[in-house]
Amino acid sequence: MQIDIGISETDRREIAEGLSRLLADTYTLYLKTHSFHWNVTGPMFNTLHLMFETQYNELALAVDLIAERIRALGFPAPGSYAQYAALTSIQEATDVPKADEMIRQLVAGQEAVVRTARSVFPAAEKVGDEPTADLLTQRMQLHEKTAWMLRSMLEG
């Protein structure tokens, strides 16, 4: 059936492509955060183990919201490691860094997700795609706060 939500197919495709990059970044950050949760050691173990768990659980929920928005716009959501690797701006962690380096990498990942979400916003705003704009705003707010909290652990 034809989609008639007041946004052209071309505009919906542009937004869905941006959301696909956001999905890839979010999923890659989820994997990195989950790995760090499993592998963190040192004096901050308990704090970081629990903090990373909270973060990867939130990211797991977020990937579903983003993918469902892509589907609502009428396009398939990427769902393979190969697709995510091609679309993400976040570098995978292939080793187990020290706890403070884990925090630095997660700050960088959180900020990367914010930049990706922000890059999609103009396309959504241009065509009055309020549901996507709302999703992007919520994602940016959450990732900025998480980056601040992680960054704060490295200060002082």
CATH third-tier fold name: Ferritin
Main CATH class:
Mainly Alpha
How can the largest sheet be summarized? none
Question: H/E order of the elements?
Answer: HHHHH
β-strand amount: under 5%
- Annotated CATH homologous superfamily: Ferritin, core subunit, four-helix bundle
Radius of gyration, CA atoms, in whole angstroms: 16 Å
Query: In CATH terms, what is the architecture?
Result: Up-down Bundle
The number of helical elements comes to 5
Tell me the structural class. Answer: mainly alpha
Shape: elongated
What is the overall pLDDT average? 96
Instruction: Please give the number of β-strands.
Output: 0
Helix content: over 70%
Taking the alpha carbons of the first and last residues, their distance comes to 58 Å
Number of domains: 1
Task: List low-confidence stretches.
Answer: none
What does this structure look like?
Belongs to the Dps family. GO terms for molecular function: ferric iron binding; oxidoreductase activity, acting on metal ions. Residues 17-155 form the Ferritin/DPS domain. The chain has helices at 9-39, 45-72, 81-87, 99-126, 130-154. Helix 1 (9-39) runs antiparallel to helix 2 (45-72) and helix 1 packs antiparallel against helix 4 (99-126). The N and C termini lie far apart (58 Å). It is mostly helical and 156 residues long. It is elongated and about 55 Å long. The chain has one domain: Ferritin (Up-down Bundle). The model has no long low-confidence stretch (mean pLDDT 96). Helix content is 76%, strand content 0%.
Output the keywords.
single chain; 156 residues; mainly alpha; Ferritin
